[in-house]
Amino acid sequence: MRIVRTVKSLRACIKKAKSRHQTVGFVPTMGALHDGHLSLIRRCRKENDLAVISLFVNPKQFGPQEDFAAYPRPEKKDKLLAKKEKIDIMFYPSGKEMYPSGFLTTIEVERLTEHLCGAARPGHFRGVATVVGKLLNMVAPDRLYLGQKYAQQAAVITQMVKDLNFPVTVKVCPTVREPDGLAMSSRNVYLSARQRQEAAVLFRSLQQAKKEILSGERRASHVVRRMRQTIKTHSSGTIDYIACVNADSLIPLEQLTGDVLIALAVKFGRTRLIDNICFHL
Ligand code: PAF
Question: Residue 247: which domain range?
Fold first, then answer.
């Protein structure tokens, strides 16, 4: 595995691969790699000649009160894991390399960013779209791998790719879960033992909703109310949102039909966890 720290050397590696007609797959990450990332990496590895990951904790997607400084950065472990997964190139830029002084440009994807996490985290998706747009220009991959766990992020990036004509295919891959159903996340390490145990209720509430819907329930308000009850009864978590939306437009649904995304964000102490399920009716 080559660890590359500058855009110039990254571009040189990519140019070489492309001159050999190799396909390039790309997994953007903020590090603290877990099995969720590894599943994206394995798929990227399988479907491309060259597998590239980036490791960059992007300051522009954190709000002023959020966990940018505390975000886990287990550098050594990440490098070992990436090497074990036979990544070809790890792009590991500094803050200055990504945002040199005088940096003034941002990418704003409208509408899709207004609801769900966008409502509680103003500016978050601007930061995500900007860094992913930059990374796509640097890596120039044929395929980009994202996790379904971040459904809104995947929708925003897919829209950006379409609107700005990035020549890349976006692959959204299934959420990887712990044995009790909790979605893997770099932030799970923040949870106390009790919070960690309680957090399994998030996936249970999503499964319960799916079961009710598959038995004929179509009222979004009813589904949300029942999920709320389950989470409140079985955990100390504070619900930020539970929403039933159209999976592509992210517009809230009253009656459940078509491609449905049920998404939630719940805070355990200061740790905000998100999860979702997606299905067609
Ligand atoms: O999903 C993440 O880890 C980040 O939002 C991403 C896509 C790497 C951009 O910083």
Answer: 186-280
